[in-house]
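Re: [ENG-882] Designed sequences occasionally contain unexpected residues at chain ends

Forwarding the minimal case from QA. Structure tokens:
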């Protein structure tokens, strides 16, 4: 981490300060205490009336919480990128003693002075200056409350994780839902003529009947007979959530060998009894989230289930309230109306986290608002009755994969935060421009959106939904009547991921076929190993009919299906990559001293956790032929330009950089060709001796195009009134 600089004021005695053209003089107050006058300069030239302070006075209400390791500007750039509204400096020299003290306090203690305007906070950030000898501030705007929540998370190197419940972590059934599913399968069997599928449905019905009988015994006797052993209930106390409630004792039977729990939502009403199957490896994922008392993630739940049911399901998953304390439970378990979209903005309605710092674990992508979908890690739906062996078919269980994804996301986010954003923020001065702010990481940068769920083919039919949907839960647990015509449960059709999905170092999931429980799994061991190599080398691995490793083609496969072609391409790529990978990793990870036949990760399928903050690092490959200094400057500039492009575009629009096929003449010179596209429109092209230089040229041309375009086909992808103009702020007064 860079070392903070000393502010200029301590070393500079007295002197005057001239006002730059366009400045507006305003009086400053801390509460009712007068601090002196300040000259305020808008960030945009000619921006009449754009200064954010009402009544032309700056009235500070409070100071932000102290930040232990992150300067306020780094926090603000993370949660509200490029939100600098204006700059201000003391008008008189020497400055008023109260203003001088405020400046030094903010600079030395990593605080900001907060002006509250409606539901917005204006943070005055103390800045060092190359020229000025008076207190200087940048003014950044952010939604009220979000800064205070983000300070603690960024200092602790903590992100947020949001879990779905049904078919992601659990499958739950009442007597009614068991009967509905048994009847549905029986109807399907009556019209089926394929003996293999009939056998599969028969086995599925048998599994449903077995668990239904256990639930019926629990309802009737408060006991179950498990493998000849009678197991009685234990009374488990439900901790009161904030707002208070009477002490509740629920009858519960836990059957760990079956990964099952029987509970009663309303202890007084036996018909609210539920049979719950927990997804395998949940204990491992939960242990990671709470390991060594170190908070890696703030945990939330977002579900379409009924609230009492959701609270009880989460209590079964987190019985000791280690992931969500009872004090926070009411706000952290968010129930969404069935059929509506889930949205991170609604999950964090208490302003406990910014959506950019949150990832989601869910079995469905399309239930999330489109702008949040890049932050969703999609897991295969949990189907313990349809395909009971699905969870164990891969060497790495589904929730262990989710743990690996969370580990990589957190590591990547804070590596970017520490090594890029934080370092560059420490170098910024009062005289710098908006364009000089560094790119701010987003959880979505480290996830690949893909729907890994069931995709029916010509022969297979989709499995019926397991457990209870959101609408079912409220009806069944509240004892409503069920007419016969409501027993028909529609089949669910799940779409597969599009061709050409880019995977970033993590095993993907399983494709479950309707064969009564047996499965075909992808990716193969070859694919998994390649993904792990990509993670360790911090390189993007893409699987199509070819394998691209950092945009270099290293394997080609031909098969009857896309999955078969991917596996063959991965096997060929692994053979081609073997020698280069081993020689690269030897000095970095000592891989030559390990058993190369051993699957990646630890014995339970987990990747080793990444050490964060100042320990986050990855050695660069030796023998680089790039001019490191020029390359570093190009990367810095590229990240800033891309950030500005993102600010111009609507939230669901993204500029894509395409690596163009090089012609024969260019190939001789080793040139790279990139073009920047938005909605199919080419915005800019770039040519360079390496990828980053070519990307930078294309990005700068694209930024210029976006700021000056009159083409309606391009303007429809831009934010309204966002034709930004970034002036050069005068450094000489």
């Amino acid at each position: 981490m860079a070392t903070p600089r000393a502010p200029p004021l301590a070393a500079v005695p007295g002197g005057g300060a001239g006002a730059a053209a366009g400045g507006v003089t305003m009086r400053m107050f801390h509460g009712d205490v007068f601090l002196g006058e300040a000259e305020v300069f808008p960030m945009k030239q000619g921006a009449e009336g754009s200064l954010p302070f009402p009544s032309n006075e700056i009235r500070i209400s409070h100071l932000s919480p102290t930040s232990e390791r992150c300067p306020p500007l780094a926090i603000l750039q993370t949660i509200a990128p490029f939100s600098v509204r204006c700059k201000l400096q003391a008008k008189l020299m020497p400055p008023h003693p109260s203003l001088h003290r405020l400046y030094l306090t903010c600079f030395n203690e990593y605080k900001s002075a907060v002006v509250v305007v409606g539901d917005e906070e204006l943070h005055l950030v103390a800045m060092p200056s190359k020229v000025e000898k008076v207190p200087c501030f940048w003014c950044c705007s952010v939604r009220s409350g979000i800064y205070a929540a983000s300070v603690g998370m960024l200092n602790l190197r903590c992100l947020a994780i949001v879990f779905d419940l049904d078919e992601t972590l659990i499958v739950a059934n009442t007597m009614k839902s068991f009967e509905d599913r048994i009847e549905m399968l029986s109807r399907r069997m009556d019209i089926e003529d394929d003996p293999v599928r009939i056998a599969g449905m028969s086995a599925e019905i048998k599994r449903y009947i077995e668990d239904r009988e256990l639930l019926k015994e629990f309802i009737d006797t408060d006991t179950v007979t498990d493998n000849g052993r009678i197991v009685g209930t234990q009374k488990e106390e439900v901790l009161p959530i904030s707002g208070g409630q009477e002490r509740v004792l629920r009858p519960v039977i836990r059957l760990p060998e079956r990964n099952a729990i029987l509970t009663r939502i309303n202890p007084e009403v036996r018909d609210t009894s539920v049979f719950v199957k927990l997804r395998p490896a949940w204990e491992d994922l939960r242990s990671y989230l709470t390991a060594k008392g170190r908070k890696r993630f703030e945990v939330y739940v977002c579900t379409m289930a009924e609230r009492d049911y959701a609270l009880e399901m989460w209590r079964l998953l987190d019985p000791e309230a280690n992931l969500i304390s009872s004090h926070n439970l009411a706000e952290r378990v968010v129930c969404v109306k069935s059929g509506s979209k889930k949205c991170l903005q609604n999950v964090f309605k208490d302003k406990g986290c910014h959506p950019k710092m949150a990832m989601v674990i869910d079995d469905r992508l399309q239930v999330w608002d489109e702008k949040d979908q890049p932050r969703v890690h999609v897991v295969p739906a949990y189907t313990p009755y349809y395909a009971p062996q699905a969870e164990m078919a891969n060497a790495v269980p589904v929730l262990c994969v989710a743990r690996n994804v969370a580990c990589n996301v957190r590591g990547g986010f804070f590596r970017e935060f520490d090594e890029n954003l934080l370092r560059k923020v420490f170098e910024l001065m009062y005289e710098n421009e908006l364009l000089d702010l560094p790119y701010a990481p987003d959880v979505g940068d480290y996830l690949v959106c893909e729907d890994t769920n069931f995709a029916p083919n010509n022969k297979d039919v989709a499995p019926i939904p397991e457990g209870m949907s959101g609408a079912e839960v409220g009806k069944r647990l509240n004892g409503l009547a069920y007419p016969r015509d409501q027993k028909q449960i529609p089949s669910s059709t799940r779409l597969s991921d599009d061709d050409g999905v880019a995977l970033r170092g993590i095993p993907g999931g399983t494709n479950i076929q309707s064969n009564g429980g047996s499965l075909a799994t992808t990716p193969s061991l070859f694919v998994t190993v390649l993904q792990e190599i990509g993670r360790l080398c911090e390189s993007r691995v893409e699987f199509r009919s070819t394998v691209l490793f950092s945009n270099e083609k290293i394997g080609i496969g031909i098969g009857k299906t896309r999955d078969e072609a991917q596996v063959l391409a991965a096997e060929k790529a692994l053979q081609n990559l073997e020698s280069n990978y081993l020689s690269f990793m030897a000095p970095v990870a000592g891989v030559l001293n390990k058993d190369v036949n051993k699957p990646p990760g630890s014995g339970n399928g987990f990747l080793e956790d990444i050490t964060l903050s100042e320990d986050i690092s990855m050695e660069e490959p030796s023998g680089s032929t790039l001019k490191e200094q020029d390359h570093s400057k190009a990367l810095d500039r590229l990240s800033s330009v891309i950030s500005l492009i993102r600010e111009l575009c609507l939230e669901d629009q993204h500029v894509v950089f395409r690596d163009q096929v090089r012609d024969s003449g260019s190939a001789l010179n080793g040139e790279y060709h990139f073009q920047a596209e938005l909605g199919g429109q080419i915005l800019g092209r770039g040519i360079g001796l390496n990828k980053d230089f070519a990307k930078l040229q294309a990005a700068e041309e694209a930024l210029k195009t976006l700021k000056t375009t009159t083409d309606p086909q391009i303007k429809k992808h831009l934010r309204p009134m966002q034709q930004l103009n970034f002036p050069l702020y005068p450094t000489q007064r």
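QA comment: On inspection the terminal residues look reasonable. The first helix runs from residue 72 to 79. Proposing we downgrade this to a documentation issue.
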